[in-house]
């Protein structure tokens, strides 16, 4: 559990681990140079519970704190926890049971409850709802280029996963998303316990609200090389790239993939004002004029709410296979 200036929530988060239905756990709290009373609160709790260890470090950010926690851990299974949130009482037991029963899984997540304000943070609430719709390893694999298909702090994984594939990395990208994309690209399989075992809060200081590494352009720059790798690994690099979405936002999002793989041959759109035009010297066609399946990779960057499902249905209806012939990326 990395912690930075979390005095308002750290006791609640730790208590949620102390209230777990299993008792054979250790909780490592890495205080990342907090300037409030966070470390004092943890110290007071740890004084009465030997399973809790506090590591105090100068402020270096969430990547260093998270990796410090992993390096200090001794268990064969690692569960992530944020200092803002709450793990429900059966979380550790049920995730551990899932990994014990499914040797093919390298990690498991779970459903989450959005515990923030759905009125003022509707986008976050919608995102959590979407993550709860990704219920198994195949859906996680297919939808990983849309966004992270589970809240990162709901994750439990086998220790050897980090030992083989590495942990968090620093860079101009969201560290949790980069790590998961890297793991899946290397062949890791991530499943999900189909129960709500986590309350995900939404404090105003959350990094994803305030750090440039979590802006949309950083997400697309992060995912592009991994999508290019996914295409190449299926020996499809000779195909043409077509972008679904001829508007400026979709074209901007697709630039990272074009830089990582190849320039798009053309665009697909449903707007009659765009169909038939050339944009940047490339044609815009309708969804009724799609190029041949075996000649194309289609990447959709249309982020309008509800459009993703329609695009998926249209492409599947043409006989295309998701995760091979087309990818949804927004």
Could you please describe the fold and organization of this structure?
By secondary structure, the chain is α/β, with parallel strands linked by helices. It has two domains: 2-214, Spore Coat Polysaccharide Biosynthesis Protein SpsA, Chain A (Alpha-Beta Complex), CATH 3.90.550.10; 217-328, 3-Layer(aba) Sandwich (Rossmann fold), CATH 3.40.50. Helix content is 37%, strand content 19%. The protein contains twelve helices and 14 strands. The chain has helices at residues 10-18, 38-46, 62-72, 91-101, 122-131, 137-143, 159-165, 175-185, 207-210, 216-233, 248-260, 307-317; strands at residues 2-3, 27-32, 52-57, 77-79, 86-87, 107-114, 156-158, 190-200, 240-244, 266-268, 278-279, 282-285, 296-300, 326-328. It has a six-stranded mixed beta sheet with strand order 11-12-10-9-13-14, sandwiched between helices. It has a five-stranded mixed beta sheet with strand order 4-7-6-8-5. The protein is elongated, with a radius of gyration of 21 Å. It starts with a strand and ends with a strand. The model has no long low-confidence stretch (mean pLDDT 96).
């Amino acid at each position: 559990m990395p912690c930075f200036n979390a005095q308002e929530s750290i006791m609640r988060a730790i208590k949620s681990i102390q209230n777990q239905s299993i008792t054979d756990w250790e909780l490592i709290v890495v205080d990342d140079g907090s300037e409030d009373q966070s470390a004092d609160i943890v110290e007071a709790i740890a004084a009465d519970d030997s399973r809790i260890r506090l590591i105090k470090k100068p402020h270096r950010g969430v990547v260093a704190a998270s990796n410090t926690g992993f390096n200090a851990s001794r268990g064969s299974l690692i569960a992530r926890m944020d200092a803002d949130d709450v793990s429900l009482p059966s979380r550790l037991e049920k995730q551990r049971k899932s990994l014990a029963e499914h040797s093919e899984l390298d990690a498991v997540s779970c459903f989450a409850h959005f515990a923030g304000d759905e009125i003022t943070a509707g986008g976050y609430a919608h995102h959590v709802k979407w993550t709860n719709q990704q219920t198994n390893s195949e859906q996680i694999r297919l939808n990983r280029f849309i966004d992270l298909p589970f809240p990162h702090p709901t994750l439990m994984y086998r220790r050897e996963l980090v030992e083989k594939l590495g942990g968090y990395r620093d860079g101009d990208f969201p560290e949790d998303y980069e790590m998961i994309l890297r793991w899946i690209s290397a062949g890791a399989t991530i499943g999900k316990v189909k129960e709500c075992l986590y309350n995900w809060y939404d404090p105003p200081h959350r990094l994803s609200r305030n750090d440039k590494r979590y802006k949309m352009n950083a997400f697309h720059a992060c995912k592009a090389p991994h999508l290019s790798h996914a295409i190449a690994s299926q020996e499809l690099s000779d195909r043409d790239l077509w972008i679904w979405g001829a508007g400026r936002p979709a074209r901007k999002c697709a630039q990272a993939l074009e830089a990582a793989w190849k320039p798009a041959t053309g665009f697909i759109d449903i707007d009659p004002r765009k169909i038939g035009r050339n944009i940047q010297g490339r044609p815009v066609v309708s969804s009724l004029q799609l190029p041949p399946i075996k000649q194309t990779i289609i990447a959709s960057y249309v982020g309008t709410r509800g459009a993703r499902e329609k695009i998926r249905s249209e492409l599947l209806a043409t006989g295309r296979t998701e995760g091979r012939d087309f990818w949804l990326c927004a």
